[in-house]
Amino acid sequence: MNALPLGKPALMTVAEFADWPGDGTDSNHELIGGIPVAQAQPSPEHGTIQANITGLAFLALRDRPPCRPITEAGLAKSFRHHTMRAPDVVLTCQEPVRRTLLEATVIFEVLSPSNWADTLAKLPFYASLPGVREIVLVDSRRMEVTVYRRHDDGDDWVDAPEERLTEPGHVLRLPSMDIAMSLADIYRNVPF
User: Fold this and answer.
1) Per-residue pLDDT tens for 58-99?
2) pLDDT for 13-57, tens place per residue?
3) Which of 26, 30, 49, 48 minimizes the C-alpha distance to 39?
4) CA separation for the pair 108, 50 (Å, rounded)
5) CB 137 within 8 A of CB 160
6) pTM for the predicted model, two decimal places
7) What is the Cα 158 distance to its own chain's centre?
8) N- or C-end of the chain: fewer Cβ atoms within 10 A?
9) Cis (ω within 30 of 0) for the bond into 42?
10) Strands 145-149 and 163-165: what pairing?
C-alpha cells in the first residue's frame, strides 16, 4: 500500500482565525504567516505593567469615546491577510470587527526575557499598519521605555527609536492620542 503524501496544512486567513475556536487549551494565539502560534504566559511584572498602562490610558481617554485602550486584541491589516498579532495594549478609536482590530493609533508591547526576540520581530508588521503613529516598547526588567514614531508626513518611520525614557520622573507623551503618563505610574508596584 502506498502512503499518501502529506501536504502542508492550509494557511489560515485572518477571517478564518477570527472564527477559529482555538486548540482546546487556554493559550492565547497569534496568527503568523497563516499558522496559529501559542503565546508565552506573561510574568507577574509583565501583567502589572500591562494593567498599569491600560488603566492610565482608560482614565485619559474615558471622556473621548470611542477611543480606548484594548488589551491583547487581534490586530491585522485585513481579513484576507495571514497575520494577526496581539499587542499587549492598543490605543484605538475604531470598533473591532469580528474580534479583530483593523486600525490602531498606538501600540504598546511589554518586553520580557521570554518574548524579547518575538516582540522585536513584530515591529515591521506594526510599522506597516497605516494608522499606527507610535510604537512603545516597555521593558519589564528595568525602567526603560522606548518610543518609535511615524514621521509627520505619515509615510515613514524614524529609523532609530525617537525617545528612550529611563527615570521615574520622565513622562511618556503620546501626541497622536494627546495623552501622557509618567514612568513612575507605568511601573507602579513593579519591583526591580
Assistant:
1) 999 999 999 999 998 899 988 888 998 999 999 999 988 888
2) 999 988 898 888 888 898 999 999 988 888 999 999 999 999 999
3) 30
4) 9
5) no
6) 0.89
7) 19
8) N
9) no
10) antiparallel
